[in-house]
Amino acid sequence: MNTNEFPGWTERARSLLDESARDLDAPALARLNRARQAALAQRAPRRRAGWLFMPAGLAGACALLLAVGVWQARRPPSVATPAAAPAQAATAKAGSGLNAGDLDMIASGDNLDMVQDLDFYAWLDAQDEDHNG
Q: Which of 34, 37, 45, 90 is deepest in the core (most CB within 10 A)?
């Protein structure tokens, strides 16, 4: 830093401090040096490498987010269970969707005979809509 930026009295103070430091005897300089070393030893060590891990963590989080996004984009919209596959095919032919009660009944596995004849029930439901609706 340029000394011209400071007021004139700071130059005078600097010269007085330098002059007093030159006049110190050896034991006083040794005591000052020991005190300085003791103060530096008490200071906690600085962690300089800590900031290096933040970009690595951020990059890892972004990579994970990208991987999940790609995985979700490639995943089929709905995974059909073996018991629900005939039901989905039958309802696609009939033009009507399954409601929650139908899915619960199919998923329970109690009445498998109905699942085998689902085409008939879909046709029956379509006939009922045509005649009553």
A: 90
Residue 7 clears pLDDT 80, i.e. is over it: yes
Q: Considering only CA atoms, which of 107, 105, 100, 101 is closest in space to residue 80?
A: 107
Whole-angstrom CA distances from 53 to 49, 58, 63, 65, 66 are 7, 9, 15, 18, 20
- Report pLDDT for 58: 85
Number of domains in the chain: 2
Domain enclosing residue 98, as ranges: 85-132
Judged against a pLDDT cut of 60, whether residue 133 lies above it is answered with no
Between CA 18 and CA 6 the distance in angstroms is: 17
Q: Within a domain: residue 55?
A: no
Q: Which two tokens stand for residue 119?
A: 């085409």
48 vs 26: which has the higher pLDDT: 26
Q: How far apart are CA 73 and CA 77, in angstroms?
A: 9
Can you tell me which residue has the tokens 């596959």?
85
Distant-in-sequence, close-in-space partners of 106: CB < 8 Å, separation ≥ 6:
83, 84, 87, 98, 115
